[in-house]
Amino acid sequence: MKKKHLSILISVMLCFSLIGCKSSNEKVYTNPGTSSINEQASNSPDNKNNDVIKSDEKYIPEEEINTEENTSTKNSLDEKTSDEYVEKEEKPIENKVGQPSKNATEESKPQLSTTTLETKERDWFFIPKKDGTPSTVDPSILNLITKQDGYYLGNTNEKVLYLTFDEGYENGYTGKILDVLKANNVPAAFFVVTPYIKTSSDLVKRMVDEGHLVCNHSTNHPSMASTALKGTDKFNYELENTAKVFKDLTGKDMPKFFRPPMGKYSELSLSYTKELGYKTIFWSFAYKDWDINNQPSHDYAKKMIMDRTHNGAIMLLHAVSKTNTEILDDVIKELKAKGYRFASLEELK
Fold first, then answer.
1. 307 a catalytic residue
2. CA separation (Å) from 162 to 5, 17, 105, 203, 343?
3. pLDDT tens across 174-184, in order?
4. How confident is the model at residue 8 (pLDDT cuts 50, 70, 90)?
5. Alpha-carbon distance values, 260 to 12, 209, 223, 239, 263 (Å)
6. Is 166 a catalytic residue?
7. Of 46, 83, 166, 217, which is the active-site residue?
8. What is the torsion angle, in degrees rounded to the nearest 10, for the CA atoms of residue 203, residue 194, residue 283 and residue 125?
9. Per-residue pLDDT reduced to its tens digit, 128-138
10. Does this model's pTM top 0.85?
C-alpha cells in the first residue's frame, strides 16, 4: 500500500516539473529583439496572404514607380513648358497694365528677340493703280513693315508727294537734276552708297547745301536679308560705314532713312535696321528707268508717272536715267498744276 502511494506521489511531482519547463520555454521566445513563434510563422513563405500584404507595402513593382514618377515629371514639365510658351508668346507684346513682371531682370532686356523673326528674303512689290488711288500691298506685308518702322506711303489724306532718287553710281545727270529741283523749289531724298559719296563728293555736298536729304543705301549694295544672316556686326557695318563716310565729308550726321538695295529685305533685316534707329523707305511708285541702254521714251515715261501718281506717293526714280533727267521739269510743273506739293521724308509719321 505504501509503495502504491509513493508511486502516485512521484507521478504528481513529475507533472509539476514538466509544466514549469514549458512555461520557461515560451518566455525565451518572447525576449526583446527576437521573433516569437507566431511572428516567425507570419513571415513564413507558406503564408501567402501575408506575403501579398508585405509586397504591397514594400515592394511596389518598378514599372509602377517609374509610371508614377514619369506622370509627376510630365505634369511638372507640362506646367513648365506651358508657362514658358506663354511667356515667350507674350514677350514681344506689350505687358498688360497692372500685371507685374515675373522676372525683372529679363523684363529689362529688349522685349523682341530677333531669334523669333523670319529670315526669309523678300522682294518689295506693290500693286499700282491707274485711277489716282494709292498703290496697295498685302495686309500681312504692310503689318510687317509697319511694326519695323517701314514706309511705302506717306500721308494719303493729302495731295503730297515724296520724291526720292537712288544713287548707285554717277552717270552724269545728277547735276542737272539738282538744277531742276532748285528751280522748282522741290526737296528730294538721295539714297547713296559709300562709293558714291567718295567718288561724287562735290555732288553730295551740293545736295546737303541745297536742303536735300542724303540718305543711306548701304556700303556695298548687298541683299540686306542675306547680310542679316551673317550677324549684326556685318549688317551694322553696311549702314554705319556709309554714315561715317558721309559725316567725314560733310561734318553732319546722316539722316536716319534707309532704302534696302534692290528692295530685298526680311523681317530680321528690318528689325536690325530699326535697332540702328533708321526708318526703312520703300516706294509706291517706280518704273523701269534704270537700264541706261534701254531708256523709255518721254511720252511713255510721262504717262506712266501721271497715271500712277497718288496721294502720299513715295516716288522712286533713278538718277542714272537720261529720260528722267529730261522730263523732270515738265513732270514737276504738271504735278504741281494738279495740286500736288513735294515734301521731305522728315514729314513721315
1. no
2. 146, 128, 43, 21, 5
3. 999 999 999 99
4. low
5. 124, 25, 7, 10, 5
6. yes
7. 166
8. 140
9. 998 999 999 99
10. no
